[in-house]
From TrEMBL:
Entry-linked Pfam families: HTH_3, RNPP_C
Organism: Salsuginibacillus halophilus
PANTHER family: TRANSCRIPTIONAL ACTIVATOR, TRANSCRIPTIONAL REGULATOR-RELATED
InterPro entries registered for this protein in UniProt: Cro/C1-type_HTH, HTH-type_regulator_Rgg, Lambda_DNA-bd_dom_sf, PlcR_TPR, TPR-like_helical_dom_sf
Protein name (database record): Helix-turn-helix protein
GO molecular function: DNA binding
CDD domains in the cross-refs: HTH_XRE
SUPFAM superfamilies per the UniProt record, alphabetical: lambda repressor-like DNA-binding domains, TPR-like
TM region(s), chain numbering: none
Residue span(s) of domain HTH cro/C1-type: 9-62
Superkingdom of the organism of origin: Bacteria
Length: 299
């Protein structure tokens, strides 16, 4: 896999008449590019994404080459889809899942990866309105029951699917049903030693708590929302994970606004939220925060 991938990167670079130094950046050194092209080093998904951008090709261009090493291919695909989901790029998530599921090896498979693909396919289909909400909900529920019947946690996929169903209920206005599903997901979440950051159960726990806090806020239960926010902040520190701190600080600010707290205290929450959004390159959230809470950020 590494030699084939390196050869393709080298070929694209030469076609465009750029040097290894031109291809490098502050995150990818010229020495690293050299090792990748020679097959000595396999790039992670972030590095491959940067290289693809500089070569003016989609990252999917390299996926067929990764298939020569199936574990690497599966992990790269999972990480890429997680990155797209976190950036709300659901159309791309849908396209990747659809492409993968069309392959014969996944058509009738019930392993973790094929279940992961089906979950992403139906949730992304709902988000981009590719199918009616009822159809997406029905298929996600069926996938949940299938996994539940297997009596295996499958790295918490059932909890993830329940989280998606809870979000759909919340957006439908069925907030109490949504909260029950979030609680069900939290109760079923197992916290074993994880295999990769993209599938870490304790990190996904933070996402569930964030969604729970958001739903409490939407219900007008600001005290409970704030309690969930503080729980999420505490666990983020405990796990040494920053991935959702921006969202937690944002909703702390939202709750404080509803409680008519001191303006400086509210502004501090939004400033902290913006710091984490920008630090983690969460442009979608940073832009939204600036648009909605700009008055607090200029104090």
């Amino acid at each position: 896999m590494k030699k084939r991938l390196g050869k393709e990167i080298r070929s694209l670079r030469k076609q465009q008449q750029i040097t290894q130094q031109d291809l490098s950046s502050s995150n990818v050194t010229q020495a690293t590019i050299s090792k990748i092209e020679s097959g000595e080093h396999a790039p992670n998904i972030e590095t491959l994404y940067l290289i693809a951008e500089r070569l003016n090709v989609s990252i999917e261009h390299f996926f067929p080459l990764l298939k020569f090493d199936q574990p690497d291919y599966v992990n790269q695909t999972i990480e890429y889809m997680e990155k797209l989901s976190n950036g709300h790029e659901y159309k791309k998530v849908f396209q990747v899942a659809e492409r993968e599921l069309s392959k014969p090896e996944y058509t009738f498979s019930n392993d973790w990866f094929s279940s992961f693909l089906r979950w992403n396919y139906w949730y992304a289909a709902y988000r981009i309105a590719a199918v009616p909400k009822e159809e997406a909900e029905r298929n996600l529920s069926a996938l949940f029951e299938q996994l539940k019947a297997s009596r295996e946690h499958l790295e918490n996929l059932p909890a993830r699917i329940t989280n998606s169903l809870a979000i759909m209920k919340s957006e439908e206005g069925k907030l109490n049903e949504s909260l029950k599903l979030f609680e069900q997901a939290l109760q079923s979440l197992s916290l074993p030693t994880y295999k990769s950051p993209a599938r870490a159960a304790h990190i996904y726990q933070l996402r569930l708590i964030y969604n729970q806090a958001k739903t409490y806020y939407d219900l007008g239960e600001f005290k409970k929302a704030k309690s969930s926010v503080y729980r999420g902040q505490a666990l983020s520190k405990r796990y040494e994970n920053m991935s959702l701190l921006g969202q937690f600080f944002y909703y702390e600010g939202q709750c404080l606004e509803q409680e008519n707290a001191e303006v400086e205290k509210i502004a501090r929450c939004y400033e902290q939220a913006l710091f984490f959004f920008e630090f983690l390159d969460k442009t979608y959230y940073a832009d939204l925060l600036k648009k909605q809470k700009g008055a607090y950020l200029t104090l």
